[in-house]
# Entry
Amino acid sequence: MTTAPTRTRPSRLSPKTAVVLVYTAAMCMNGLDSTIVNPALYTIAGDFGRPVPAANTVETAFLVALALALPVAGWLGDRYGTKRVFLGALAVFTTASAACGLAPDLPALVVARAVQGLAGGLLTPVGMTLLFRAFPPHERAKLSKVLIVPTALMPALGPPLGGFLTQHLSWHWLFFVNVPIGAAAVLLGVIGLREHVEGVPGPFDRAGFWLATPGLGLLTYALGFGPSQGWTQPAVAVSAVLGVLLLAAAVVHQLRTPEPLLKLRLLTGRAYGTASTLAVLTAAGLMGVLFVFPLLYQDALGASALDAGLSVFPEAVGLMLASQVVDRLLPRIGPRRLAAPALLLAAAVFAALAVPGAAGNAWLVRGLMFAIGLVLGTAVLTVQLAGFEDIAPPDMGRAMGLFQILRTLGGALGIAVCAGVIGGHGTAATGPGPYRAAVWVTSALVAVGALAALRLPKAPPQPPPFEDEEAGEGAEAPAAG
# Structure
């Protein structure tokens, strides 16, 4: 492990503050971009003279590219330095955002969106590594309550902001909004972040890379394009088969090699394995409903893009309160007793959105979306805290990368399933029926998650030994110098 030498010089910005600011800005951009385009897909399709399912390729390209970058994110950060990789990815993400806004046609938009996804796939794992190295373990619990806002709140703010910009400016501004934020964050990072090169324990796992990376990309491609192009189309069918075969071979390889690209053995841990399963199910349900409901509002009920976006805005308020609920209840009742009922309530709220007449009542929709943010946010945050409680510090980077891969695949699966349910009713189908059926599917996914949550630890997490950790850090400090 090597750390770039630091020189003492006057500065009003501490390294910890710089990490928080740069990470928060990057995660706000990345989280916002995961949902901000959803309410504009109807408009984008119309502007380019394409059907709505074809416009879904904009989001599919982002998810496929993001999946391609996730497996190597941890290795790149350790090998070349977290500051260099993180700021490089942020700069590419910002440039690609400008290219998306300037796209003259759908293919150009899809390509630029794919570049965004590649950069976005590096931001979260490498950004978490920056945070964990800047803050000692006993400071991370309080920090997570603040940092959950950009990662959980921004996806909820995406639809209303996307609807507002689409209706009052144009869909191009969905991407232009990232440019000044990204440029300022890169500049701040260059000045305030410290470089850290961890080093890698062994040679790069080339076999794992060439199996896992294309496997993830092909499977995500099949999930995204299957509903719109048909599962029997040669490109989709071949991608699905090859993706599954490559991932199966990757699993075998990762379990046999001493230094795997992805440490799949972590999934054998009960807490982390259960949390990873729940990450797939909750991401599928949430991304699915955020994809379907704006379309239900616009296509079936004739609402504007702004109305569609505002319909899911109260979820953001519920998410903000969820962190407070977890902070108060998790130490008292434990992960299982908190997550399982919360997921059951979330499934019931999802189902209520599909009840005939419910979507036509604006205040009922707002109340249900607030409830989704509160109960599903409570469950998701509980799962993350419980799942990573027993992960050793040397494994944290790979555990975070694997968790992000599974959550991304879950989101792609949710959107693909919902798009398939809508498309399965035929192009001549009209009315809200297909959209309501897709919402029912998201409810079922979350309900299955409630059953899986019964495997979470029953006992509340133990508080970190502050005194021991601080003494240990103080004892190690002289040796580090």
